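Lab meeting notes turned into a lecture example. A postdoc, R.K., suggested we walk through two folding results consecutively so the class can see how the record format repeats. The first protein's sequence and structure tokens come next.
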Amino acid sequence: MTDAPFAPGFVERPYWWDAAPPPVPPVLPLPDQVEVAIIGGGIAGLSTAIELGRNGVPALVLDREAIGWGASSRNGGALSGAGSLGKVRSDLAEAFGKEYVAELMEEGEQAFESFEAFVTREGLDCDYARCGRFVGAHAPRALDVLKRRIEMINAAGTEEAFFVPRERVAEEIATERFYGGMMLRRAGSLHPGKYVRSLAAAAERHGATLRGGVEMRGYRREADGGFVLETSQGRLRARKLMIATNGYTGGATPWHRRRLIPVASYMIATEAIGEERVRRVLPKLRVYGDTKKVLYYFRPSPDHTRILFGGRASFVNADTRRSGATLHRFLTDLIPDLADVRITHSWKGNVAFAFDMMPHLGEHEGVHFAMACNGSGVVTMTHLGQAVAQTMLGGANRPSAFARLTFPTRPLYTGHPWFLPLVGLSYQLRDRLDGWRVPRKDSA
């Protein structure tokens, strides 16, 4: 493989970790007994711990890796509210009913507003900016899908989405590949590494104990409703238990694992090209996506000097050097003005999809959970974590509408998505039938 896409000093790790690397887990003993044990030290788990701590309930957060090591510090840092619900399926009203979907949309919009207030209240240092989101239509037939999404979003009462005709796409992005698009005003961006680091600091400030490098290997429920956890550092007891492992859910929680489809998502960061050139290709400095089945998502870096670009570079477990070359090819095909720009970082992380493509929270046999962000995790998992905490506290004024969703699985599915390569081929075929063409591999 040619080294043409790779800048000197190229590394296979998240760009976000340059400024906010996951902390080295301390080797410290675990308490024998805790009020609440949270498994998963990402956005959902830390948000739960913060909300519990604000209400006087200290939590223990365990993660088999460093706190924040997973998708929470690897994602694209693009944020939206209800707009993310229609991203992966356009038949919400038909599937769940108009009244219920209206509840979900309203909660999604409120979650975004609450997120902004949460960042301010906790003083989270995460480079947050409300910048808006542009979603490009990859084919003419996608225009009708976008228009339905716009109607659904605006029906929530916010009137924050509008259609962008093809002749105005250049005002948003320097490409001729899109046939129009959707603009969401109620959307933003942040630095994922800094966000999860700030969440961890806030959780500790509110009384939580954080322990990375500790794996939960199993648990059992006791007669009094509490739990005994078997961990890599011994046994402990917890009155309540929450699972917030999402795309990294393992065999210790098989019921949850059977309901999640872990999918690797890949990203690259370009070399620094300066704000002037970034603005030439992304004039409004928003966050961006498209309507393809094999979608792209991209944005400027927080300092506006680089382009960060992500997508499904592979539906098998590809190495990040190869996926980096693939994403570079996708980027330069979409925005030809970047053909001479090399990349400095390439990485991947697991997102978790549910079979119904919806976020889920709830309780199963006494175990609380918040899972399945379906590729839109920052606002979603912050909100679901807080909602789980309110449920544990028994003080939710209005239970989350998402808690009423059945969490489906499929017969014989055990959490190993053997079918992903087949799904990937079908998605690629559907995109090609829509008229989308990807450049040849030998052009990299």
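The second example is placed directly after the first for contrast:
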Amino acid sequence: MRLLKYISIAFLLVFIVQVHAQEMMGLTEIKHNVKSKRVSSYDQSGDNHDNLQNIKNGDKRTIFNVKGAGVIDHIWITIAPEPRFLSRNDIIIRMYWDGNDYPSVESPIGPFFGQGWQESYLFTSAPLLATPSDGNGLVSYFAMPFAKGARIEIENQSGKDITAFYFYVDYTEMKKLPPNTGRFHAWYNKQLTGPADSVENEHWMFGPNKPNKTGANNYVIADIKGKGHFVGVNYYVHSPTPYWYGEGDDMIFIDGDDKPALNGTGTEDYFNTSWGAPKTPYSTPYFGYAKVNNDIGFLGKTHIYRFNIADPVYFDSSLKFTIEHGSTNVLTLDLASVAYWYQDKAERILPIPDAAARRPKPMIGPVDIHRWRNEWRKSKGNDPKLWGN
């Protein structure tokens, strides 16, 4: 088993080196009719107040607004106060392409950049990062093309003032985009799942399960109309139980199919792991566990990510990406996600949940479990020697 582990790591390293070599070779190509540009929060007076200040609750600010053609290739953001005082779950980022009055990107800023709930922690992947200190530097390297202009807006829904908002948006200005250049999209979803019959069944604990072939009650990561390709997801799981939450399969429906075109074998399997969640965080460029629960079993919060950079999921007319909820996975879970994809034109995405629906659920801990045990003991006659069976 250890030998297999080392072989797998060696193959991954070889792949990363090959991709890196291709990128480095690409840097040797001299470009024509392109120019690097930046919009940032620098102090245009020449002083050093290099940030947007005092963004009130409910206020919107446009941080990027350019005309013409180009590609955003780098975004960096940091915000004050820090997350324990100001929730990144309630600062919304929206992106508008080609003069549209509707966004093709809409998400809380924290989850978009790989910071779940209202927390901050280090996150490292190829397209998105949350950097030191404590995950407060929010970074994107996703390519975001536009042909007729682009606008990026933030909205403060936190109930508090944003005292400082620093940002860079770097882009390449060009005469026109290459043919068949898609538009970047991203969508945030959140749902509190629960069993239809009040029985939380996982791994056949309470008997047989109902077959799930249609995905009718699955958690939805993306529901897309149009032509394009799916390139990844940040997936946030808050489990109120120590029991394993990941028996749900990934079920991906393409172009209106009644049955999944791509059907997986378990949540962790889509994210390239195995036999449940790891005990410690780990990162690779395209997949990993940025945060793992630190309580009993699988109780608590977990952030998993997978970017389909080398293996996009292609579709011609629609894509519905779901994680199974039903059959062998009918637990009550607080789930959230941000999906990322490209389409042949900038489309309107679905509305995202409002601030009340986004609010994180309180943590469940040993004290709560002990209280539940005490209620169980009382329901069984309050015998002081009851063990738990």
